[in-house]
Amino acid sequence: MSSSPESSLENHRPNRPSHSKLVFDQTLITCEVRRHNYPGNGTVDDPYLVDWLPNDPKNGFNISIGMKWVIVMICSFNTLACSLVSTVFAGTIIQIDDYFQSGEEVSILTVSLFVLGFAVGPVLWGPLSELYGRQIIYLLTSGASVIFEGASIACQRQDIAALTVLRFFAGSFSASAISNSPAIVADIFSPAERGLAVMAYSIFPFLGPTLGPICGNFLAAGAGWCWVDTLCTIR
Fold it and tell me: Which domains are delineated in the chain?
């Protein structure tokens, strides 16, 4: 008995893996991927043309529109938090100068070295995300930025040098959110529908540095500069 076209299509449709496998398996090389008949002969003159399988669960374009916008909002608020932290110490310069007796120029390094990390970080995180995937780089760098910010709280009673160095490393790792988030938006939206998503996302990188000095001034005046550093960790 010959199989119907519907059953034949069902046999060639890849089985959707579990959500945990989608999250932790960066390649998701399944039997369907290996058995798929790719165009080409696998030679130098006629190589295989590798493309997404029909209904491939790893294809970002196949995500539902609602989940796409959830991802955009997560990336947007993460970028907002990182960019806000870059300038929030601007409201604490006078207090840091009085506390460490370091001079205004050295106190300003708590802001400028964090921003310098924004220049150094993307040089690493952008290419690495292309090699190992956005997800794993995003998770590792976000965790490392929190660790360095938390370490700066521990050194608050020590010296200004440790605080500025830790702020630099925190900025370097936080830059992953700013450099990789636009790429995530491009990975899940087709060019025809990407304009609105990019426009919505682009608000947040500019909003963060604007809100940073305002939040820093109010928090420093009410609770002291140490709580501003704590805010950078819990953001």
Answer: 1-58 (no CATH), 60-234 (1.20.1250.20)
